[in-house]
Amino acid sequence: MITYLTHLACAACDQTYPADEPQHLCTCGGILLAQYDLPRLAREVPRERISARGWNDGLWRYAELLPGVPPERRVTLGEGATPLLAVPQWGMEGQVELWLKDEGLNPTGSFKARGAAVGVTMARQLGATHIALPTAGNAGAAWAAYGARAGLPVIVAMPRDAPAITQHEVQLYGARLHLVDGLISDAGAWVAQGVRSDGWYDASTFKEPYRLEGKKTLGLEIAEQLGWTMPDVILYPTGGGVGLIGLWKAFQELRTLGWVPADQPLPRLVAVQAAGCAPVVRAWEAGADATAFWEGAATIAAGLRVPGPLAGALMLRILRETNGTALAIDDATIHTAMQECARAGLWLSPEGAALLPALRTLIAQDWLHPGERVVLLNTGSGLVYPDLV
Amino acid sequence: MITYLTHLACAACDQTYPADEPQHLCTCGGILLAQYDLPRLAREVPRERISARGWNDGLWRYAELLPGVPPERRVTLGEGATPLLAVPQWGMEGQVELWLKDEGLNPTGSFKARGAAVGVTMARQLGATHIALPTAGNAGAAWAAYGARAGLPVIVAMPRDAPAITQHEVQLYGARLHLVDGLISDAGAWVAQGVRSDGWYDASTFKEPYRLEGKKTLGLEIAEQLGWTMPDVILYPTGGGVGLIGLWKAFQELRTLGWVPADQPLPRLVAVQAAGCAPVVRAWEAGADATAFWEGAATIAAGLRVPGPLAGALMLRILRETNGTALAIDDATIHTAMQECARAGLWLSPEGAALLPALRTLIAQDWLHPGERVVLLNTGSGLVYPDLV
């Protein structure tokens, strides 16, 4: 099995780690990013080889840009290969060329499936016997499903007031559900205790490097769907930020490979948060280098209720580097946007629906320019939130 | 726009109709099937041209085997291109080579999206101003969504005890919902009245020919995913039977085109029904040529609650022609199967889950043989049935 994965490197201090054993955070507390031998990959693999693959490979069509795992060892439920839909009606009469990447068409109804597919695959490859993670919502269902598919026990901790359907779903998949009176941060503390005492494999956001690799395929797909070019702008509903960082990592790798034009700037990434939990927006507006814990986090967009994202500093760096921005949308506006999207045939998650008012704000502020190509990244299906309609 | 569609022909009496105006049933009451110039298509289109297309075309990757519609006039939400998953664990220790076609990964969470995509596209092309249909469940949500995407008003009639989420969904998409105290057959009578009095476009099952063309792409995809061959057997949860007939039509066309081996027999098609509504099974077991209305239809598998399918006779003919069979599964067994599937990471609809006990019955009866390649066709996601968990 050829693999181009060479090692892991800390995003904060550049310290490196071998990739052939379980790794979590850097000793400095920084996030570990998978590193590939991109020059060799560029020499050996033409992008046409990728494009010739059928849709049934899902996100593994990008196998060379993922950890090397033989096909029969990949844990898959058919994730990835989601559509990029033209939604000209929201582009302000053609002022912007607007696309919707619809991640609701994934197993378990959300983009979390991408992270779980690669994350569970690698946990099993690296010898994990139990996978544990905290979640604000969708990720729990996804990891429970992929754990079940892989035959690996999963322990999920989530706030007691996380969506009921997600709680049911986690149990339906046979995972152990632990409810906490609190937020995802409290659930995370409970998981950390079990990791220390019982040797669970810690699959918390960014505490292993492969969930991010799965999410990275979002950016690879968008580029391929746009004819191996990058959009000018991507609006992304930002909770823990794995997708945001995955997009950034994807486009950097594609540019290094020469699979997208090397002189094209990275897409300006826009972090859209809920007004009831907007630590990235607050830090961005204050010009800060790191996020501060958001007290009293509350929003109908369960996936955005991440008051203290581990990767806050890295997200802020990426927003700066890509000339992006950050803005928050209140719940009432999100709710109205869900209804407006549905009237166009698109029942988006509240996280995804929040992008529509964010888009309008950016157009009104002349932050978007006529003719720009803009992608809205809908992270999940409205079906996952039946209580909101 | 090149089209290979030549005309429509009655499945019962062979009478033909032009395809460039709205058509519903034959004057004899038979179902109209779209007919293509397959010899010309075979000369002009190599199947490699199909395979070279990206997944983003969805079911329109088979455009030459669908009505000719320019890309910008196609009504799409990203339907089709669903995965075919290996599920060896259910194949009785490798006795059969088992696959699951997971149609839950479609817009609105079910395979109904395929029929609605092509059906709504053609309704609009043919000048419809209002689309009306009765439904037992999922189809209502799908047609409401595609109507909204197309900007066409939709009227959906369904039993008052259809799943609550589907009722909400239809309204969320802006369609008019009419509830009847009764079954899909009663909803159908109400729609027929409006078609006569108000000129609605009748999109009832088989009362226009293009829903079937959309469903047909199921068979085209399965063949392509199996390397342009046909499986030996397909288990299909049978309500109205559009998918069953679509599979049969797809494989016949592929064989005529030479895109699958001309000497390979058509897959044996298996109609799986709920014990509480099994008109096809009862007729099959009695050796009858037509189905009789099933009194008191009741099952948790809403999509199977079709007591008097319009295409009953055609389905029975297809089961005979393909050396297929029919069998019924009771609700308690369906419910247990849903839980077993979920423990394998697959939250299937009750209709899809019914296939697992059906498979076991067929293996126990030696109806399936070692080494045969079998496809289970899961028609929808468990997410559409949150009340069942």
Keywords:
homodimer; 389 residues; alpha/beta; six-stranded mixed beta sheet; four-stranded parallel beta sheet; 13 helices
Describe the structure.
Two copies of one chain form a homodimer. Chain A has a domain at 84-110 and 211-388: Rossmann fold. Chain A is globular, with a radius of gyration of 19 Å. In chain A, strands 4-5-13-10-11-12 form a six-stranded mixed sheet, with helices on both faces. In chain A, strands 8-7-6-9 form a four-stranded parallel sheet, sandwiched between helices. Helix content of chain A is 35%, strand content 16%. Chain A has helices at 38-44, 47-51, 112-125, 138-150, 164-172, 184-198, 210-225, 242-257, 279-285, 312-321, 331-342, 350-353, 355-364, and strands at residues 5-10, 16-17, 32-36, 84-86, 97-102, 131-134, 154-159, 176-180, 201-202, 233-237, 268-274, 325-329, 373-378. The relative contact order of chain A is 0.14. The first copy, chain A, is α/β, with parallel strands linked by helices and 389 residues long. The N and C termini of chain A lie far apart (48 Å). Chain A has 13 helices and 13 strands. The model of chain A has no long low-confidence stretch (mean pLDDT 96). Chains A and B meet through α4 and α5 of A and α4 and α5 of B.
Instruction: Please provide the count of β strands of chain A.
Output: 13
- What is the CATH class designation of the domain at 84-110 and 211-388 in chain A? Alpha Beta
Q: Biggest interface pair, residues each? A: A-B, 48 and 48 residues
What's the order of the H and E elements of chain A? EEEHHEEHEHEHEHEHEHEHHEHHHE
Mean pLDDT of chain A: 96
Give the low-pLDDT segments of chain A: none
Strand count, sense and barrel status of the largest sheet of chain A are: 6 strands, mixed
User: What would you call the shape of chain A?
Assistant: globular
Radius of gyration of chain A from CA coordinates = 19 Å
Q: What is the annotated CATH architecture of the domain at 84-110 and 211-388 in chain A? A: 3-Layer(aba) Sandwich
Multimeric state: homodimer
Q: What is the CATH topology of the domain at 84-110 and 211-388 in chain A?
A: Rossmann fold
How many distinct helices of chain A?
A: 13
Look at the helices and sheets of chain A and give the structural class.
Answer: alpha/beta
Proportion of residues in β-strands of chain A: 15-25%
Distance between the termini of chain A: 48 Å
What fraction, in percent, of the residue positions of chain A are helical? 25-40%
What strand order characterises the main sheet of chain A? 4-5-13-10-11-12
